[in-house]
Amino acid sequence: MKIKRIFDIILATIGLTVLFPVFILLIGLIKVTTTNSVFFKQKRVGLNGNNFTMIKFRTMRINHKGNTISIKGESRITPLGAFLRKYKLDELPELWNVLKGDMSFVGPRPDVPGYADKLKGNDRVILSFRPGITGPASIKYSNEEEILSKVANPVKYNDEVLYPEKVRINKNYIQHWSFWLDVKIIIYTIIGKKLNDSRFN
């Protein structure tokens, strides 16, 4: 696992350096188009069940009355926020979380404390890995917000269908982890390709 952490540090350093102009541009656009703060910070559950503060570009209006899950087309999402979310640009600040060691490039997405508390028994193996910016579950459900927008009860569907399925996929990822699997997942995330692997589908 040491190679995974070294890889994260090198790639996060390169990413933060190369994408610095993009950060400046997006910060400027957010400041111009909204009176809200630029960054969204939220407590998430990370390695060994320890909480950390995840950083993203803000895509929603402050003081909204929404759920912890997001649905495509919600009024609380700003027009610029919708664009950032579509292309996953809102997650670029998570590179800082990776550099700090809170996260990894690849791994289970970090849950808010309420959802992480639902992990019981063998499912808690997910907490033995650093949470990731991307992962096999993230790739499979890259259109999660669109899926939730088409069901009658998004919260119930997420709790009873999507969340258990993502737990299963993440457990399989941990069981079959390899450095080259991480590289493959990163490449597939960038090019927008699905993982044609029965372990993760």
Structural account:
Helix 1 (2-18) packs across helix 4 (94-100). The mean pLDDT is 91. The chain has helices spanning 2-18, 20-33, 79-86, 94-100, 113-116, 136-140, 144-149, 154-175, 179-191, and strands at residues 39-45, 51-57, 104-106, 132-134. Helices cover 48% and strands 10% of the residues. A hairpin with a 5-residue loop joins strand 1 and strand 2 (51-57). The protein contains nine helices and four strands, in the order ααββααβαβαααα. The protein is mainly α and 201 residues long. The strands form two sheets. The protein has a two-stranded antiparallel ribbon with strand order 1-2. It has one domain (2-200).
Low-confidence stretches: none
Alpha-carbon distance between the termini? 25 Å
Biggest sheet statistics = 2 strands, antiparallel
Tally of distinct domains: 1
Rounded average pLDDT: 91
Number of H- or I-type helical stretches: 9
Helix content: 40-55%
Q: Which helices and strands, and how do they pair?
A:
Blueprint: H1 2-18, H2 20-33, E1 39-45, E2 51-57, H3 79-86, H4 94-100, E3 104-106, H5 113-116, E4 132-134, H6 136-140, H7 144-149, H8 154-175, H9 179-191
Parallel strand pairs: 3-4
Antiparallel strand pairs: 1-2
Helix pairs in contact: 1-4
